[in-house]
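Appendix B, example 12.
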Amino acid sequence: MSGTSSASLRRPVPGRLFGWVKVYSWIELAVFAALIFFWLAPGFDQATFIFGLAHGIGYIGLCLLIWAACLKREAPYTLLAASLTPVGPLGSVIAIELIERKGWGIARAEEGAAPEAA
């Protein structure tokens, strides 16, 4: 019984899906930045609508992709929490950088996790 509980509490190890989350986060951040630009600039109502729609659909897709990565234990739930902040894709990009640079919320090699294959 203790093997089951320790397996359910083990820390995630970034895998192939985590790489897709990283790329998708940067693309969604670019779409979000374009939306902010066109929203602030006067006279770009059509572009604001297009980028707003793209951001809305893309953001939902990003959150679902992060959730799938969390369920497969390839990303920590803190990444999902950071993505659901008001800054949206900027939160996920910041969280990904903290995960990669500081190791926040992921298993380290000394904890018995295999290092990420390149």
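Residues 21 and 68 are 10 Å apart (CA to CA). The helical segments are 2-8, 16-40, 45-71, 77-83, 89-102.
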